[in-house]
Amino acid sequence: MGYCEDIREMIGNSPLIIVRPSVAIINNEGEVLLIRNVGGTWTIPGGTLQLNESVEECIIRIVLEDIGIKIIKVKLFGVYSGKELINRVEESGAEYHPVAIGYLCTEYEGEITDNRNKKIEAKFFRLNQLPEEIEPFIKNKLVELMGNLKK
Description:
By secondary structure, this protein is α+β, with helices and mostly antiparallel strands. The chain is built from three helices and six strands, in the order αββαββββα. It has helices at residues 3-11, 55-67, 136-150; strands spanning 16-25, 31-37, 70-80, 87-88, 95-109, 120-126.
């Protein structure tokens, strides 16, 4: 079990603050990499910070484990928190209050390898042609990113 699972076991379904680094990976064609659990909602790669791990180490680990891409360099895009990010797990009733740390990555190595064990699929999308099944918060931030990239 990971750190959050250990804490969740101790506190039950009480709200839990977590640190959640995420990364918008942009390829040479200006497309953004989105992932989703098969049949789910598209989002950018991200995960939960573990003990003794920096946020940069966390996002590098998650992306490599989930889709086989090795991140070379990241740049901070923004730090986000608040009511719009609260996540409630329907099955258990657990509530998470993330502090999301968004990064931008244009330097990476490797090819996408869909993780069949975790049932994750990954695909690059044009920033102006994002899928309809995307998390609204992520879509808004990608639109903001698209504006910044044009400057």
